[in-house]
Each structure stands twice: as C-alpha cells, then as structure tokens.
Amino acid sequence: MELDYIENINEFGENVVRLYNFDRHQVIKFSELIKDTIVNRKQRLDLSQVDFIENRNCNLILGLFKTDEGILSSDNITFYCALTLESYANILKLLEPFCEKETKGYQYLYDIDNPTDFLFSPAGTW
Q1: Backbone angles phi, psi at 22, to 5 degrees
Q2: Confidence of residue 34 (pLDDT cuts 50, 70, 90)
Q3: Can you tell me the distance from the alpha carbon of 76 to that of 67, in angstroms, rounded to the nearest whole number?
Q4: Per residue, what are the HEC states of the chain?
Q5: For 107-122, what is each residue's pLDDT tens digit?
Q6: How far apart are CA 12 and CA 104, in angstroms?
Q7: Strand pairing partners for 108?
Q8: What is the pLDDT of residue 77?
Q9: What is the dihedral of CA 112, 12, 104, 61, to 10 degrees?
Q10: Cα separations (Å) of 99 from 9, 15, 24?
C-alpha cells in the first residue's frame, strides 16, 4: 500500500491524498487499524508508523475532530485527516467491498467541501 499527494488534479485546482497499490489483505489490516486505533481507542493513527504503507511524498495522520474538516496541511507534506467518529465509521463501511474481494474500483473516503480529497484506489486511478 502506497500513500502520496497529487496537486491540481483538475481545472478547479483540487488535490488528492491517495492510498493505492494494495491488495485485499492490506485493506483488511488497514480497516482493522482504523477500527482499533481511532474508533475504539480514540487515538490518532499516523500512517508513517504503519509497516505495510509506503509514504511516497507525504504523510497522513488520521484523527478525531468535533466536525468533519477533511484533509488539511500547512506544508503539503504532512497532512491531517480531521473527521468525526461517525465519518470514520462510514469509512469502514466504504472499505468493506475492498476487504471482500480484489477490485479495480476506487472510492473517495469522504464527501466534504474541501480542496483535498481522500482517494482509495487499488490501481491508483480515478
């Protein structure tokens, strides 16, 4: 599983933080990490500390917030995903099809009016 940041993916100047190049087994482990660390223990999950995720040009830290803010960064290197507990529970639901079988599909992990989207794509495409 790889993590990267891509600027200006369209004419609106939007960006994407992308998790890609993974198989079903890695998705299961990633889903379990979100459930255990964020949902159950209410702690931050620093993806640079996850042994099966390779950070290409950025890092992403997932954490709980009172409102859904999405992915934020001041330097386009370290990103913070600030979502509510309900939104992380929804992410777990969105990951379920990727846990059940290998697929070429993709999923945006939240729908927030924010210039940076969170893309989950085994092939890296959208």
Answers
A1: -140, 165
A2: very high
A3: 22
A4: CEEEEECCCCCCCCEEEEEECCCHHHHHHHHHHHHHHHHHCCCCEEHHHCCCCEECCCEEEEEECCCCCEEECCCCCEEEEEECHHHHHHHHHHHHHHHHCCCCCCEECCCCCCCEEEEEECCCCC
A5: 999 999 999 999 999 9
A6: 26
A7: 119
A8: 97
A9: -50
A10: 27, 26, 5
**Which pair of structure tokens corresponds to residue 89?**
């529970």
> Which two tokens mark 101?
């079988």
Q: Is-contact 40 31, C-beta < 8 A?
A: no
Tens digit of each residue's pLDDT (9 = 90 or more) over 44-72:
999 999 999 999 999 999 999 999 999 99
Q: What percent of the chain has pLDDT over 70?
A: 100
Question: Kind of pairing, strands 116-121 and 54-55?
Answer: unpaired
- Domain segments of the chain: what residues? 2-9+27-110
